[in-house]
Amino acid sequence: MSKLTRREFVRNSLMGISTAAITVGLSTSLTGCSSYDLINADFLHGVASGDPQSDRVIIWTRATPKDPAVDSVAILWEVASDANFDQIIARDVVSTSASRDFTIKVDVTGLSAATIYYYRFRSRNHRSPVGTTKTLPTGSIDQVKLIVVSCSNYPAGYFHAYGLAAQQSNIDAAIHLGDYIYEYGRDGYASEDAEALNRQVEPAHELITLADYRARYAQYRTDSNLQAFHQAFPMIAVWDDHEVANDTWRDGAQNHDDSEGDFYVRLAAALQAYAEWMPIRPPVDTNISSLYRSFEFGELINLIMLDTRIIGRDKQLSYADYFSNTGEFDYQQFNADRYSDRSLLGSNQLTWLKQQLDTNHQWHVLGQQVLMGEMNLPGAIVTGQLSLAEFFELAKLAEIAQTNPEALTNEQMQLLQEKGPLLQMPQLPYNLDAWDGYPKERDEIFNHTKNNNSNLIALAGDTHNAWANELNTIIEGDIVVRNGFEFATPSISSPGAESFLGLSTPEAVLQAETALRQLVWSLKYTNLSNRGFLTVTINRQAATANWTFIDTVKASSYQELIIRRHEMAVIHQ
C-alpha cells in the first residue's frame, strides 16, 4: 500500500468527519420521510450531547437495526423543554447508514442561551433513554461548573467514576481530555484482571482498521456508567493518544510499526471512528484536521480546547538516545535538543491560541491533554537508576555521612560509594511526552499570558493521577513569574503512579506524595493512587478545584473515598 501524502490524509480524514453531522433548525414538522418509514431498531449505546454553544448543541445516538441486512435507517429525534416531553420544541426524522456505523448526530440550532433541554430518539418499536443537555450562557454571568475526566480503560476496571460524576448537580458541561478508549488487544496494558471482571476487550486484537475502532467504541458505549455520564450533561471532548495508538505524534506512534501497515491509514480510520461516535461538531477550517476550538461561557470564561497530540506534535524525545555506551548521559545535547524549535501545537494552532488568549474574558481555561506544569525530578530517578524510595534513603545516608559517619555500617558506606554520585545528577523532566518535552513553545505561551495579564487555568489528563501545579517561569535565577495554575484530573480506571512506583500500601502512597511535593517546587497537590474525577467551579473571584475519588475499580460495588477528597482555590488576579 502506498503511503498517503499529508494533504491526502487530511482530505480523507475530513471526509470522514465532515459528513458525520446534520444541521437542523427548530422544527415541528417531519421532513425527509414519514413516520411510517421508521424501522425496528434498538438504542443499545445510549444517547449523548456535546459541543454546546449559546444557540445550538449536538445530540447523538446509535441505532442498531433489528434486521442485520438493513443498510440504512430513519430515526425520529425530539427536543423538549421538559423531561416529560409535554413541551416539544423541535423534532424531525434523520437517516443514517452503515457508512456512518449507524451513528446519528444532529446539530440542533435556534435554541435559547443558558437553557436546559431534554432529547430522545425513536425507532418504530423503541425509544431511547432521555438525555439532558444545556446551552452556553451569554453576557455577564456569576459562575460556571465543569466536570473534567480522562483515561477510561475498559479492561482495567469498572467505570464507577463516570457513574458517580453523572450524579453531580448544577453541571454546565463535561470536559473529556482524551484516552476515551484504549487501542490495545487482550494481552495489552492493564488487562491482567479483565477476564475475572468480565471486561475483556472487543475485538480481541489491537485496533488497526476502521472496523476495529468502531467495535471498540461500541463496546465502551454499552457500559452503563459511561451511558449515564453522557446522558447527564453535554460533553466537550478532545482526543489524546490512545484513541489512535500509544504516544501518538504527528507522523507516527510508539505503538505502531511497519507490520501494522501505513500509519496515516490507521490514523484516518481512528479519527473517522472518533468523529462518528463522539458528540462533536465537524471542524470548521477545512485546511486542517483537528479538534482545537473554543467555547465562551458568557464574559466569564473562554474555554480553549487544544490538540496537543496529533495536528502539530513533533516526535517525543527519548532519554535512551542520550546515554553513551559507557552509561554517561549527555546533558548538553539533551538540553540543546529539548530547547530547540520543537512544537507540540504546530504554528497554526499556536497562533490561534494566542488570539484566543487575547479575548476579553475574566478567565482563560485550556482544555488539553498533557501536564503543562514543570515536573523535574532528580536525574537518577527519571532515568531509572534509583527508585523514589532509594533516592531518599541514599540522600539520608549521605546526610548522616556528613554529620556522623561513624553511625553508618560498612554496607551503608559501600552503598554510598557505589551509588552516592547518582545524587549529584541534575534534575530532568520526568515525562518528555508532556509540555516538559517542548519547553520553548510553553515559554512562548507563558510570555504571552504574562504580557496580556490573562488569568490562566490549564486542565490536563493523561497521567492517571490528580495534580495541582503553579505555572511558573523563572527569570534571571531568582524572580518567579506565575503565569497561571494547572488542575489535572485522575483517571476513570487506568492505573496510576501507584502501579509503576510499586506503592503497595496507603502509607507508601502518602510518603511518595510528600516526597514529590518536596522535590517539585511548583507542585502544590497530588494524589498518586486513586481513580476519580475533577470538578472545577469558576466565578468572578476564584477558580476552585474539587477532586473526588472512589475506593476501587476492581469490584462491582464501590464507595466514594471521602478521606481523599481535596479542594483547592485560585484567586482571580
From TrEMBL:
Every PhoD-like phosphatase metallophosphatase domain range: 146-547
Q: Which residues form the Phospholipase D N-terminal domain?
A: 45-135
What this protein is called in its record is Alkaline phosphatase D family protein
- CDD domains associated with the record: MPP_PhoD (cd07389)
Could you tell me which species this protein originates from? Aliikangiella maris
Q: Which domain of life is it from?
A: Bacteria
What the entry lists under InterPro entries is as follows: Metallo-depent_PP-like (IPR029052), PhoD-like_MPP (IPR018946), PhoD-like_sf (IPR038607), PhoD_N (IPR032093), Phospholipid_Metab_Enz (IPR052900)
